[in-house]
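To whoever is on call:

I kicked off a structure prediction for a single chain this morning and the downstream step that reads the tokens threw a length-mismatch warning. I double-checked the sequence; it's 308 residues and nothing unusual in it as far as I can see. Pasting both halves so you can look.
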Amino acid sequence: MYPKYSMNFRKLEAFVLLIEKKSFSEVAAQLGCTQPAISQLIKSLEADLNLSLYDRYSSIIRTTPAGHFVYQKAKSILKQWEELEGEIQSFHNTLTGNLVIGASTIPGTYLIPQYVREFHRLFPNVSVSVEISDSKKIIDKIINNQVDIGLVGINPSSNKIMTLEVASDTLVFITPNNHPLSNSNSLNSDTLRNYNFVLREEGSGTRKVMEDYLTIYGIQMSDLQSVVHVGSTEALIASVEAGVGISCVSKLAAIPAATSGRIQIAEGLEPFKRSFYLSTLSKNTNLPIIKEFTAIYTAKDIQDEIGI
């Protein structure tokens, strides 16, 4: 048995965040304190346990073997406390706590804000944060309990995840202004081989849908002249605008760019439907905060407002 010590959740939270973010400054920013304060919390936790929790001689922040064990246990403790807080709120007829949403680029930019606004209107005491990344990374974060809810452009295949199709979009070809393809009405590999392409990175939901789209026409990604891979929709549109190449992108993102005259949509080429999926760990679906946020997605009035 350990002697009595001043263990608290703040220390555990600081340590878990440090191992995940690998940056004292990022942890300090998230917890709203200074870097020395974070360092003191970690030192205090190590003193409580009489253990060294991370390797101070490594160029990156990583756990010692004992630290890895403590990290796993600390994550579990913090999650259980969060669940307890959420379930207790049903006795108070309100919700408080934190909700971490992970979203891929398109839903994170064009769908999530409206839902967060409605959720905040209903539950103003819940603190909401949104992390934007590609679909594959968000799915990994869901599995690892690093985000509570994900909205992604790939249907997760893990049996640990509950998935709900909540919105749809179309993928369209975009070109620089006055590009020959902007007036084309046929899609074939011989035509596309003549043009340079701007592509999203591996793991992107948009890229995966584009691959499926081209396969229907017997076109492989290897048939395309890839000039550059980019990590965001805006970077992709900016590259097309600059004349680097052509690409496929969500219509949600293409319309504002085309309306402002930055690029053109190849209207003659048939668009391809895609879906977005609301995902969470199956074991967490009945947690009050997750349950209430999920319920917003089935509300017809907000779906009509967004146009999904």
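Update from on-call: the warning came from a stale cache, not from the record. Cleared it. Sanity check on the structure: The two ends are 57 Å apart (CA to CA).
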